[in-house]
Amino acid sequence: MTRHSSPDLLALHAVRITGYADTPAIAHRYGLDAAETKEALHDAEARGWVQHTAFAGSGGWSLTESGRAENERQLAAELARAGGAEEVRGVYREFLPLNALLLRACTDWQLRPTAGDRLAANDHTDAAWDARILEELAGIDRALAPLADRLGGVLTRFRGYDTRFAAALARARAGEGAWVDRTDVDSCHRVWFELHEDLIATLGIDRHAHP
Fold this sequence. Notes:
211 residues, 9 helices
């Protein structure tokens, strides 16, 4: 049976996978009530799990080290109750080769080596170069759908990554190149980064030990 996560867990976890975001963005990530999310974040702050910082007129939440540990403790307990650890680990094993393809595609989107400069920026004047990358992303998109379906069958909070990725790719293929790799929109790269963070947090894996 698919398990639904508690609002408090989702609020803390949304801070983890977004990295840094304000209260409305945290609430929006899982469709949570804004007032309840604000209360949950302040409770987490009182426990030392999150901290709020502000600069340049904007502010946001981030996890502390103890908050990161607490998030992983909650996720491990949730996964154990759901009985889906083997399924999530299996998806992660299939995710890793796709992750390598995604990272290479994003690098190729940003750089197009020339004879004189291996790190030359991609100015997007080579239509064939960009079309190849978009086709590679389309292949990743096709592979992601069944993986997302398996994850969503374990925990409802995993749902939506495939549709978000597909929506970003559709915009990129329509000529909006920012939707490949920008971090300030729900781009292919941003969606993928969140999924990667979600998987390693859920499984208690060190991102630096597993690229």
